Amino acid sequence: MRYITIFILSTLSIQLSYSQINELGVFIGGSNFIGDVGSTSYISPNQLAIGGIYKWNKSPRHSYRISLTYTDLKGDDAKSDDPRRLQRDYSFTNQIIEFSGGLELTFFDFNLHSGHKVATPYLYSGISVANIEDTYFLNGTQTSQNSSSWAFGIPMVLGFKSNFLGNIIVGIEVGARYTFSDNIDGSYPKDETLQPNRFGNQNNNDWYTFTGITLTYTFGENPCYCPN
Length: 228
Hints:
By secondary structure, the chain is mainly beta.
């Protein structure tokens, strides 16, 4: 019995070692900020966002995914519908580079070796971390603190993808990032000496979104869940 168990486990290990297929590609779209400065619209891209993306498809229903995305987040009170923000008339920019990793789940089987065109909605979540410049507002003007910090967050992405271009997978997605920072826009500098310069709702952290398309190329061994 022991030898049978060892044989079964060894066979499964061999199968699992070939049970992945890789995707490597790019994300192209736009970003927008949701916080104490600028528009209060949830999905309103106003800056270019570009990045790279890699997926390891573990099964037809889930993939491990990592990405690196660059954007220049921007907020402008003049674009807001809030009369108080219009009167205040602040604006900011903050260049960020975000790394994200997590799990992508498809609503339907996404078998890339079925020989058919397949498509499915999907959800993605995990953890993200973005490098941001530390700033504050002095006399209504964004001012640098000459330092940077890390804004950790939780990505929440909804998308739709298809292999109608063969080995090129095309996806359309909208993803919000809830961050554990309240100073992407310079409204809550951590330095206690700058406490008088804090403003806005200090009980809500900052959000930002990426909206765009993904183009990934598939390569690797046929996964074990596919027919020969």
